[in-house]
Amino acid sequence: YQAPYPPYDPTDKEGFSYETVVKRWPIILTGIIDNIYRVNHVLSVSHSEEAANEETLSAQEKIEEGKNLIEQISKLKYEMGRDRPLETITHDGESMVDIYNTELARLTEQGKGTWFTAPWLYAECYLYRLLRSYFSQTKHWNKHDPFQAQKQETFKKSSQAIFQLATTMHELEQDKAKLGSDAQKLNIIFREMIQMCLWGNATDLSLLTQMTHEDIQHLQSVGKDAQAARKEYILTDDQDKVWSHLMGLKDARIDFVLDNAGFELFTDFVFADFLVTYTPYVSKVVFHPKMIPWFVSDVTPPDFKATISSLLSPTFFPESKSDEQISSLAGSALAQDPTIVSAPKELPQSRQHLKEMVTRWAGYLESGVFALSVSPETPLGASNSNANFWTSPYPYWNMNDLAPEVFGSLKDSGLVIFKGDLNFRKLTGDVKWPASTPFESAVGPLRGAFPVLSLRTNKADVVVGVEKEKAERLDSGGEKWRVNGKYALVLFLPRA
Ligand code: F6P
Ligand code: MG
């Protein structure tokens, strides 16, 4: 399928793609180097005093490999900044190498094989696959996720919104008997749930290069008022269509093509839990992860598994400050720290509410009501004919031909929820559609294959499904509405 518009690429210096190559990728690469350096440092300190035994030798080997990784990534950063050609990916025994290299050869022929000329979507997917090939070829780092520490740290900082949502779900549980027969109330709760799940996407770590912790807490606020205030930022809102569609289902399976780990995955679980536990429409939910570290914060099988145990661990989230502790801080230097003053006012019961809810999820995972599309034990880099597709450079237009197994499995789904910005870019091919292009045109041949819901906060230039006047007004307003993560789209497409 050939879209009638060219892809976004960094030759346009006004676009987010240019800013990404110039600023964001170098920061992300530096973060990986820091992460390796830190692991190496800990290893060298803990093994410096010991006699040469097997463990020390393997630590030394790992340190040497770590240094080599740092060198490779520094070189990559250097070449990226100088618009050098993309290198071919070494056959590392993992998936997609030929697909990436064949496409690279094709782009090179067209004079688009360098960092500042390659289409953004291709180059960004390629970057994460290339990085994976550096790690996968080592002996000691081949299961290492350089973003894992960052994912965990940020997750810990989301406790305020997490406890709040747990208590909301607890209150729902009290009302459960009544809810089943009150369609109107269910609809109202559905709206809150879908919006929570949508804004959960605002916290993606690849954008952390430009957001403060306060910005993030603000985006995570989940109360009614916060949601009402954000409603005007949903540029096109198909919530009603989705609800009507869901009401036509009975005991259906739905699918989440996941985006980010941490808070966003938590909101996906809450949404899934709501649909399964409180509505008659859905009885099974399948979650689709990424098989390699991807776009910094995307969910891998190890992340998926760790999420449940972190949420069930009594020590994972830091104790919140009580009111007395907060007031005793007043006047001290710490009081200037916004993260402390706005510390979570955790209800005494909310930890219990969280435990109740996540125990229910664990039960669902046990019984197959919730399922990951691959085993949660799958290590990074494992090949899986179904899951590999999500880390290919392909748009979703031709899923039917490119990934018949995935396509076949989604065809039976009652609703496929595509989370986040990258999934949206792939649904629309990341080409320069006019913003008023109907969503159903932008998905090309995927149109009508299965019911699609895209929940996306805007973090890339491509926009479709927005009224012409609205988009023009925003474009002329000077705000970076296409990329600053403050605006969003809720787009639905039915099955044909
Ligand atoms: O860096 C490019 C990008 O795809 C942006 O569009 C977005 O900021 C980020 O990476 C990924 O966002 P998400 O996690 O929502 O897919
Ligand atoms: Mg992501």
TrEMBL record:
Q: Does the keyword Metal-binding apply?
A: yes
One annotated GO molecular function is:
fructose 6-phosphate aldolase activity
Per its record, the protein catalyses: beta-D-fructose 6-phosphate = dihydroxyacetone + D-glyceraldehyde 3-phosphate; beta-D-fructose 1-phosphate + H2O = D-fructose + phosphate
Key words of the record = Hydrolase, Manganese, Metal-binding
Pinpoint the Damage-control phosphatase ARMT1-like metal-binding domain residues: 20-473
Does the record carry GTP-binding as a key word?
no
Q: Which GO terms describe its cellular component?
A: nucleus
Please list every transmembrane segment annotated in the UniProt record, as residue ranges. none
Per the UniProt entry, what is one GO biological process? DNA damage response
- The superkingdom listed in its UniProt entry is Eukaryota
What InterPro entries would the database entry show?
Answer: ARMT-1-like_metal-bd_sf, ARMT1, ARMT1-like_metal-bd
The cofactors it requires, by name, are: Mn(2+); Ni(2+)
Q: Give the E.C. number(s).
A: 3.1.3.-
Principal EC category: hydrolase
- Give one Pfam family, short name only: ARMT1-like_dom
Which purpose does this protein serve, as stated in its record?
Answer: Metal-dependent phosphatase that shows phosphatase activity against several substrates, including fructose-1-phosphate and fructose-6-phosphate. Its preference for fructose-1-phosphate, a strong glycating agent that causes DNA damage rather than a canonical yeast metabolite, suggests a damage-control function in hexose phosphate metabolism.
Report the family membership: Belongs to the damage-control phosphatase family. Sugar phosphate phosphatase III subfamily.
PANTHER family named among the record's database cross-references = DAMAGE-CONTROL PHOSPHATASE ARMT1 (PTHR12260)
What's written under domain?
A: Subfamily III proteins have a conserved RTxK motif about 40-50 residues from the C-terminus; the threonine may be replaced by serine or cysteine.
Protein name listed in UniProt? Sugar phosphate phosphatase
